[in-house]
Amino acid sequence: MRAIIFGVILVSLSACSNLEIKQLADTVSDLAGGNVPSNLGSYSSKAEPSSGYKHQNQQYVNETENFTFNDATRQNNDLGLIRPVTYEKNPKGLTMVRFLGYHQDSGADITSRQYMYKIVDNGWLNKKPVVSFNNNAFVVNSGAYYLKGQSNSGSFNVSGDVLLKRGVTNVVSLELE
Predict the structure, then answer these.
(1) Number of neighbouring beta carbons within 10 Å of residue 66
(2) Does residue 6 lie within any of the structural domains?
(3) What whole-number percentage of the chain has pLDDT above 70?
(4) Phi and psi for 33 in degrees, rounded to 5?
């Protein structure tokens, strides 16, 4: 039965390139538990490192990274924690966002300022941020944003991606570290 399915797939893809057929054959072979014979050869989707190169696996960061919340760049390591967004209906049906800041260790309320950079289609960050200096809800466009937040004292930070839903008030909980 598996050989018949494999044959039908190969015949239907006769216009495909040889590499695509090899990839498909290997995929079908893997799915079938390796019992489908393949005389099409093999391919490798993994790039082999050149001789002499050795990648160092570091688990921890050895140096601190400057946190510039008003710059449209991603941090190498996201800070703090952005809790899942909750949604509240608002009377006007506009897309709004409200931030709730907390200290990550103690859970105490922290007032903070947030800079949100819209993530455009190719993954880049828009240079002009949407800025919030308090916990009041404000109107914003829906979509994916990269958020950087800093406590008003400047001692605690948070960064990461957030997705805002259209037509509701998005309540975002930030745990600053």
Answers:
(1) 6
(2) yes
(3) 64
(4) 85, 15
Residue 13 lies in a domain: yes
At 94, which helix (H) or strand (E)? Answer: none
pLDDT in tens, 115-171: 999 999 888 999 999 999 988 999 999 999 999 999 988 789 999 999 999 999 999
pTM of the predicted structure, to 2 decimals: 0.63
Q: Which domain holds residue 12?
A: 1-46
CA dist., res. 177 & res. 81, Å (int): 8
Within 8 A by CB and 6+ apart from 28, the residues are 2, 5, 6, 9, 36
Burial of residue 115 (CB within 10 Å: 0-12, 13-18, 19+) is buried
Query: pLDDT-based confidence at 98, cuts 50/70/90?
Result: very high
DSSP β-bridge partners for residue 28: none
Number of domains in the chain: 2
**Domain CATH code at residue 115:** 2.60.40
Instruction: Please indicate, yes or no, if residue 128 is contained in any of the structural domains.
Output: yes
* 12 occurs within a structural domain: yes
- How many whole angstroms separate alpha carbon 2 and alpha carbon 14? 19
